[in-house]
Design brief:
nine-stranded mixed sheet, 26 strands, mainly beta, about 425 residues, 4 helices, six-stranded antiparallel sheet, Jelly Rolls, 2 domains, Immunoglobulin-like
Length: about 425
């Protein structure tokens, strides 16, 4: 009897222990919610660190104006805002950073959580709210990015305001953001007449244009015309190309990229060259001059040129020069004091139409950041181009003096940039 009683008491404690264990596991389970249930986290970021230069297979620009900028359809290039905050508590320091932008059809907020000192295994919860729609991400590990995207409403307009907020909890006091963003429109008819588009951001990109003929690397050496060493560095959108150090000399003509079969690509009667350009230093004769954006002085005799040039012989320190034709059938326009743009990215466009641009009597125009800065009404340039053009070339010792990014060529005279 006494043995049976002891057994009953032991059974009671075993049952109580098992019940308590099950109860406690049930209470802890929500804290261990697996990342697999977070749809946006998986679909948009994956379960690994997100490459900084490839958010959702796109490239981000962190300066924008919703009144004038627009998204080129299918380019994967978007205009973003970003910010970050760090907080310390004892030995623990955490950092939360975000990027926010709109694509052609959705608004995206990406939040990265990092433990920069302390227990790196500490996880966090991140709540993102966009225009009242909320998503919570639980148990986000350090170094991971949580992404929440919502569809844009039908009929959305440029500069329309989007309100979003972020709250991170865990490892000390919460970190929060309350922000707004003005939507960037999708460009209209942006690809009309586009015959070449090269991103210039890597060897692979140079040799594989997004649109039109591929570019090539100059690989000749006749003692005067030599090949550039090149480097791919941070550009306006992703990476751009510059000239790296090499065995250069005064008067050396350093050629970088080449567009072959030029006469079959460009129309001498009308067209547009569009490119992003960063000039670190003003060109100086017999030191580093000119900078050939698209052929130009001492280039490959293309019969067309767009360059930054030391024009001190004419009393001008630095001009942006646009040329068409050769010798007696030569026409040029230029913008003086181009060096005032040193140290900043500028968008340059050279436009020509022998019959008149957009119905005007102007036949050649230069644009900087969308503003016309030079023009002419002359139209007697040659009726053909040369066989090839030098892109991102220069003379003398030009290493690191300028960067090119995103070159586009159109077979129409384009004036909206």
């Amino acid at each position: 009897m006494e043995t049976q009683k002891r057994f009953s008491i032991q059974s009671y404690w075993v049952v109580l222990f098992v019940f308590g264990l099950l109860f406690s596991c049930e209470q802890l389970d929500p804290m261990e919610e697996p990342l697999a249930v977070l749809e946006e986290f998986q679909d948009l970021s994956g379960l690994a660190l997100e490459p900084e230069d490839d958010p959702i297979n796109g490239r981000l620009v962190y300066t924008s104006d919703c009144e004038s900028d627009c998204i080129e359809p299918g380019s994967g290039n978007y205009f973003a805002i970003k910010d970050s905050k760090s907080q310390s508590s004892g030995i623990n320091t955490k950092k939360v950073s975000y990027k926010a932008y709109n694509t052609e059809d959705k608004f995206v907020v990406k939040v990265k959580y990092e433990v920069t000192s302390g227990p790196s295994q500490a996880k966090a919860s991140i709540t993102i709210q966009i225009n009242g729609k909320k998503k919570e991400f639980k148990a986000v590990p350090s170094g991971y990015t949580a992404t929440f995207a919502i569809p844009l409403e039908n009929g959305w307009e440029k500069c329309e305001e989007v309100i979003f907020s972020i709250v991170q909890k865990g490892l000390g006091t919460p970190i929060s953001f309350s922000e707004d963003y003005n939507l960037i429109l999708v460009c209209k008819n942006i690809d009309k007449g586009l015959i070449l588009w090269n991103k210039l951001g890597s060897i692979e990109e140079v040799l594989n244009s997004e649109v039109g003929p591929d570019l090539a690397f100059f690989d000749e050496d006749d003692g005067l015309n030599i090949s550039a060493n090149r480097a791919f560095v941070p550009g306006k959108i992703g990476k751009g190309i510059t000239i790296a150090p090499g065995d250069y000399f005064i008067t050396s003509r350093i050629h970088n990229l080449v567009l072959n079969n030029l006469n079959s690509v460009l129309n001498p009667d009308r067209g547009t060259i569009s490119v992003w350009f960063y000039q670190k230093e003003t060109p100086v004769g017999y030191e580093h001059n000119p900078y050939r954006i698209f052929d130009g002085p001492y280039g490959l005799e293309a019969g067309i040129g767009l360059s930054s040039f030391d024009d001190s012989n004419e009393g001008k320190t630095n001009v942006l020069l646009f040329e068409l034709g050769k010798e007696e059938s030569y026409v040029s326009i230029k913008y003086d004091d181009f060096n005032k743009f040193n140290g900043q990215w500028v968008h340059i466009a050279a436009v020509w139409d022998r019959e008149g641009i957009s119905g005007s009597n102007e036949t050649m125009q230069l644009f900087i950041n969308g503003t016309k800065v030079a023009s002419t009404t002359k139209n007697n340039w040659n009726s053909g181009f040369g066989e090839r053009a030098d892109i991102a070339g220069a003379n003398d010792f030009p290493e690191g003096k300028f960067i090119l990014d995103e070159i586009k060529i159109y077979n129409v005279a384009k004036t909206n940039f």
